[in-house]
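User: Reviewer 2 asked us to show a designed sequence for the structure in our supplementary figure. I'm pasting the structure tokens here. Could you produce the per-position amino acids so we can include them in the response letter?
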């Protein structure tokens, strides 16, 4: 099976979020994501109500503690319970238990890849980085297309990144009603597979970028997005529209922040 990879070469300021090289090299079993057309019937995790997760694996190389603490304090001022995970604490267990939270903010690397399936069709896949450095102990996950070895832009350090199948098979339970996940990375919506898998499990809103996003722009957008919801009382859809109007698209990719919900997938 031959794989096609796109490597983006842009200014070094993009480094943080352009984790393009998701390595989906040879597997005996190839994976093309397929998903149910209705949310799975499981009990929602009502204990997640009022809980916020801020997971920042970018803190390894590109820390922004002022932003993280500011966002956490905003939510706490409204009575939310906030958990913060940094660096290598952003691991497989945390991703498997995202349903423990009503609001999830991931500040992470994201990646994409293209490959040829058995019929020769070009397929796309995207993934979300953990803060864990790659180890051969993860080879079984790679063989089964659950996770893979991936490299941040302009780096020789390999990390573990989860693929859409991880959330399909390893996510625990259902999200609480009204739950929102903000993925502050490049390529979180490059394909809709991860978003759809999470929405199938009860997630109400998935917010992210399809293309490249520069670090400074990303952090500014996330800050204003939270301010609009927490301080100004806007709903998430309104907040995304207003932030895009105020701050515009990313200056390199020209991509705007996007929001996806169940109405996108389940129609009629």
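Assistant: Here is a per-position design you can include in the supplement:
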């Amino acid at each position: 099976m031959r794989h096609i990879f796109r490597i983006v070469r842009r200014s070094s300021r993009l480094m943080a979020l352009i984790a393009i090289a998701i390595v989906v090299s040879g597997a005996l079993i190839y994976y093309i994501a397929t998903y149910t057309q209705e949310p799975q019937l499981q009990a929602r995790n009502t204990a997640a109500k009022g809980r916020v997760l801020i997971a920042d694996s970018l803190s390894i190389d590109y820390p922004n503690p002022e932003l993280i603490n500011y966002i956490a304090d905003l939510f706490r001022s409204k009575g939310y319970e906030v958990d913060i995970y940094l660096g290598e604490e952003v691991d497989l267990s945390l991703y498997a238990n995202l349903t423990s939270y009503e609001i999830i903010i991931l500040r992470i690397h994201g990646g994409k890849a293209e490959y040829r399936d058995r019929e020769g069709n070009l397929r796309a896949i995207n993934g979300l980085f953990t803060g864990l450095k790659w180890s051969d102990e993860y080879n079984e996950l790679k063989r089964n297309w659950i996770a893979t070895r991936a490299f941040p832009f302009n780096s020789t350090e390999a990390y573990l990144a989860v693929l859409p199948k991880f959330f399909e098979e390893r996510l625990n339970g259902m999200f609480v009603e009204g739950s929102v996940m903000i993925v502050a990375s490049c390529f979180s919506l490059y394909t809709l597979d991860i978003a759809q898998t999470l929405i199938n499990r009860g997630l109400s809103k998935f917010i992210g970028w399809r293309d490249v996003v520069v670090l400074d722009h990303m952090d500014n957008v996330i800050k204003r997005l939270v301010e609009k919801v927490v301080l100004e009382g806007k709903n998430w859809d309104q907040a995304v529209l207003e932030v895009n109007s105020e701050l515009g698209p990313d200056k390199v990719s020209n991509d705007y922040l996007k929001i996806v919900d169940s109405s996108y997938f389940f129609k009629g």
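For the response letter, you might also mention the following. Residues 48 and 100 are 5 Å apart (CA to CA). The chain is about 25% helix and 25% strand.
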